Amino acid sequence: MDIDIFTYSNIGSRPLNEDSFGIKNDDNRCVAVLCDGLGGYNCGEIASKTAVDNIIEGISKIVDLQADSIYNVLKFVNDGLLQQQIARPELSGMRTTAVGCIIDKTELNYFNSGDSRFYFFSNGALRAMSKDHSVSQMSVELGEMPFDNIRFDKDRNKLLKVLGDRANSDVGTIYRPLTYKSGDAFLLCSDGFWEYVLEEEMEIDLSKSNTAKEWIEFMLIRLLIKFNGNNDNFTVIGGIIK
Predict the structure, then answer these.
(1) What kind and span of H or E run contains 47?
(2) Which residues contact 40 (CB under 8 A, 6 or more apart)?
(3) Which residues have a Cβ under 8 Å from the Cβ of 29 and sit 6 or more positions away?
(4) Where would a tag sit more exposed on the chain, N or C end, judged by fewer CB atoms within 10 A?
(5) Contact 127, 117 (CB under 8 A)
(6) Cα angle vertex 41, ends 39, 42, to 5°?
């Protein structure tokens, strides 16, 4: 697929970067996946890297891309993480968020588990985005607080769906496919990124950019200015469809 893609990942102020990402792009399909590991020490890093690799591998094998087939890949990856937890007790707390998009010749599919996000921009404006699986997002859905308050709400890190969670068999959400055209853009990012970059700022920086690299670098400047010394890992994948 003819897509201009740029990626960036930063450890922030943490001792270890537990974010992972991967991209597989060929003539017929582009798959981009980003995962933010949970569990501390090296558990989160293992969970996120394992999930990224296995999601990309699983989706690459799908011939007829449907919501059920994408969900089944997430379920398979989730089951694999649970099996690793049994085999290696030191990994018993590992979990990970996941967000990804699949672009083929006719449409764009996307999915998420947890609070890593997908954004889609058309004609320079935000057209679609994933919904966090968090207590804070639930409060927004119930009308208890505005959407913008999610960014620093005390419950924003209380996640309701992630991969590797024994308590919840629902592994995520597969959204309705989007149509796209040349010039449309997408963004995948962990919460350490979107907490500091507003949706309006994403649009502004996209309008100033000719490449995905320029777009990401404009947004990183905003993020770094807002650094407070206690920042999480942050990772972003940006793409502009040619």
Answers:
(1) helix 43-60
(2) 93
(3) 1, 60, 102, 103, 104
(4) C
(5) no
(6) 90
